[in-house]
Amino acid sequence: MTTKIRCAWCEKDDLYRDYHDNEWGKPVYDDPSLFEFLILETFQAGLSWYTVLAKRENFRKAFDNFDLKKVSEYNESKIEELLQNEGIIRNKLKVRATVTNAQAFIKIQEEFGSFSKYIWNFVNGKPIDNKPKTLKDVPATTSISDAISKDLKKRGFKFVGSTVMYAHMQATGMVNDHVEDCFTRV
């Protein structure tokens, strides 16, 4: 039996390995998934991705399976309910930002036809393949994540700094940062 060689960051446990093997770095073009990843990445700000990933199912339940329209209409009562939910990250600014970001996401859909068209335009519609040799070769930000962050902030989004947006690019396959010897590259 041969052992799969993976990016070293995912070897913590099966949850991480499964995410790495089946989701991370695979191109995502549908708006519902892009919205989910965007919200999860904003909750990650200042925390580890593992913390968010371990609570992902709780986030899905708490945020109505990331139903964009429902989230965009959350009122103070729903926000307070979320802040009491021990299954998610209960950061008041991030919970409020989720509602704001859902509203801004809808405005982008209206302007561009879809969020996917908007976001993928930053990479000319196709993934960037960085081909890093090791994790040390993977950047935390790039000029593209800087540009996305700046534009999203201008459009009213919160918690979308360049590092968050680069992580979003990685998660949604806009950039392929699987290391050179990772089995996903074969």
TrEMBL record:
InterPro entries: Adenine_glyco (IPR005019), DNA-3mA_glycosylase (IPR052891), DNA_glycosylase (IPR011257), Tag (IPR004597). It comes from the Bacteria. Gene3D superfamilies: Hypothetical protein, domain 2. This is DNA-3-methyladenine glycosylase I. It comes from Flavobacterium sediminilitoris.
